[in-house]
Design a protein that fits this description.
This protein is α+β, with helices and mostly antiparallel strands and about 200 residues long. The chain is built from 3 helices and 11 strands. The strands form 3 sheets. Strands 4, 7, 8, 9 and 10 form a 5-stranded mixed β-sheet that branches.
Length: about 200
Amino acid sequence: MNADDMPPVRRLGRRAIFENRVWRVFADAIADKNGAQVPDYLVLEAKAVPANAIGGVAVLPILADGRIALLRNWRHAIGGWSWEAAKGFVETGEDPAAAAMRELAEETGLACQAADLVPLGTVHPEPAAMATRAALYVARNCTALTDHVHEADEAGLGRVAFFEAPAADALWQAGEMRDAASLLLLARRADALRSP
């Protein structure tokens, strides 16, 4: 490993602050190569993260007629509404593609064939503080599930709305969509639609 590949920050210590069903929160004491220290650098770590570090998924549903399904969710942390793709955590032992299909069904009431679930890489939702990645997918040719029950117990989960592609793009162009994974999915969706 050459000098340019050496991490410029090292961890001096770690203190667990909080834990719930999904997250562990730590305050790390870190120091840079010049000796400057931060005694309480916040780190969130997903509990069910496997070796590939994929702890979540985001899936953009697209119907056969080209309309895009988005959720209008209330997000407590920002105190406002957010237009988003379907998203959620990967359960312990669950494959990310299976998690994407599950979240698609649970949050939107839509499903697609396995061949129509197109992987579009991964994203670090917030690399400055979150020690996890999310796998990104587009679900093509989605159809409605007849036996769908909306997940009413998920805090903030909102209604599903369907948009023609230009209207979906107008959401982020107008600043009404600010969720990073959803924005990246909209930007990459053309690649998925070209796939066989």
